[in-house]
Design goal:
Length: 448
């Protein structure tokens, strides 16, 4: 049966701004309080989606969250009209207002963990929204994320949706940013790699000291149970605590996988040899394909350059001719050491044969590269037919989304703009129109 990987990219929301909310994310902190451009950010994302569609990839669109989050502000004690709520929060708790205006759902890699039907016990594609408990501004997302996922993947014959894990740090779950899958064909059984930062119930085990570990082993194990994955199809590996303390807040900042390729920095994992041996053994049981481990030595690309350029927060995609292409941010092109490494990589004996560079600077400044912007869903042609077709990229949707952004989005936003009641009206008007365009139904609180 024909199978492939679809990418569902998050649309940048109308309140895209730089608040520096993410401790441990170096780029986010460095851009704090800069003036953002929501319109440019959204158009950059849409252009990337269209470019992948034009390369022959199946490309989907994922709607943003409702922001400002008036419901959460009211829950925290601010009252009166919507305008009163915004003004009170601006004066009394500006950091809370920033968090409730965050457009961080644009990084759809954090939206959920996805297991394809080839891996699951019931033969369905499974989705578990990430609870994102480590950061308040992201912990506001799971309920709406679940609503949107159910509207996009809306046929229970093929799709199984789970409630996000318990809202507690012991089960901190950051979604696909700490999860990847290796396989032969996308439709065959594969091996799912769950990378975690700490053990929640064993404080004696290794853990970072400077920055928080956002994913726990226990959360990863819970998702694997929910998705009905076999022990032979799962590998758990701990991320190196030292690299977390150097700004590698998610595993997708230090490694990325696709089909039979694992591309990683030599400092990415703890007990790397043990991990690779287990992965090799389990992969060999599911596929006859050669497994390629592409290790990037520190002497060629430093950890600092990895974080600055997001070398590993790139997408590796398989084109129709079977070769692989890296989708990289322009930061990789503009860094001489990283560019030299990638130029050499495409000449070596691996499936990766080319690199394409994209301008996603608005996302990069806030701490997310091309891989952060997309949720990967391996599926068959039959399963794709069960997806909400209005959310799949084509020439008409590209034109409609571009016009929608140009109609509703502001050219720039600074912190003072977040108190403006007009921004709330503009955002809700835009999202209401988007749900009609994508035929999502009433996925937002303000629509009910």
């Amino acid at each position: 049966m024909n199978s492939f990987e679809a990418n569902f990219d998050g649309l940048v929301g109308p309140t895209h701004n730089y608040a520096g909310l993410s401790e441990g994310n170096v780029a986010s902190k460095l851009s704090a309080n800069d003036i953002s451009s929501p319109r440019n950010a959204a158009l950059q994302g849409i252009n990337k989606m269209k470019a992948l569609h034009d390369l022959g990839m199946t490309q989907g669109v994922f709607a943003p969250q409702e922001r400002p989050d008036i419901f959460s502000l009211r829950r925290l004690g601010f009252s009166g009209t919507d305008a009163n709520v915004l003004e009170q929060a601006y004066k009394v708790a500006p950091s809370v207002l920033s968090a409730c205006c965050s457009a961080s759902s644009m990084w759809t890699a954090n939206a959920a963990t996805v297991s394809p039907s080839g891996d699951s016990l019931d033969g369905k594609i499974h989705f578990t929204p990430a609870n994102l408990t480590n950061k308040f501004h992201r912990s506001l997302e799971p309920e709406t994320t679940g609503n949107i996922l159910k509207s996009v993947f809306n046929d229970d014959k093929y799709f199984n949706h789970h409630l996000h894990l318990n809202d507690n740090d012991h089960f901190g779950d950051e979604g696909a940013a700490n999860h990847t899958r290796l396989c032969g064909s996308y439709g065959e059984q594969g091996v799912e790699i769950f990378t975690f930062g700490k053990y929640a119930f064993n404080a004696s085990m290794p853990a970072p000291k400077k920055y928080p570990a956002r994913q726990t082993l226990e959360a990863s194990q819970a998702v694997a149970r929910l998705h009905g994955l076999s022990d032979d199809g799962v590998v758990y590996v701990q991320q190196n605590p030292d690299v977390i303390d150097q700004g590698v807040f998610h595993n997708d900042v230090i490694s990325v996988g696709n089909q039979n390729v694992l591309f990683y920095h030599e400092q990415a994992f703890l007990n790397t040899d043990v991990f690779l041996n287990e992965l090799s053994e389990k992969f060999a049981k599911t596929s006859s394909e050669q497994l390629h481990f592409i290790k990037v030595p520190t002497e060629e690309v430093s950890l600092e350059d990895c974080v600055k350029t997001y070398l590993f927060n790139t997408q590796i995609i398989t084109l129709n001719d079977g070769t692989m292409t890296i989708i990289a941010p322009m930061h990789c092109h503009d860094n001489p050491r990283v560019k030299a490494y990638l130029d050499k990589l495409v000449t070596q004996n691996t499936p990766i044969k080319q690199v394409k560079y994209f301008d996603v600077n608005e996302s990069m400044k806030n701490g997310g590269g091309p891989a952060c912007l997309r949720l990967r869903v391996a599926m068959t042609q039959q399963e794709l037919g069960a997806v909400n077709q209005n959310c799949l990229m084509n020439d008409e949707l590209y034109s409609n989304l571009t016009a929608w952004v140009n109609k509703h989005y502001r050219d720039s936003i600074c912190f003072d703009d977040l108190r403006d009641p007009s921004l709330l009206v503009e955002s809700r008007t835009a999202l209401d129109e988007l749900t009609q365009l994508l035929k999502l139904g009433s996925v937002y609180r303000f629509q009910r």
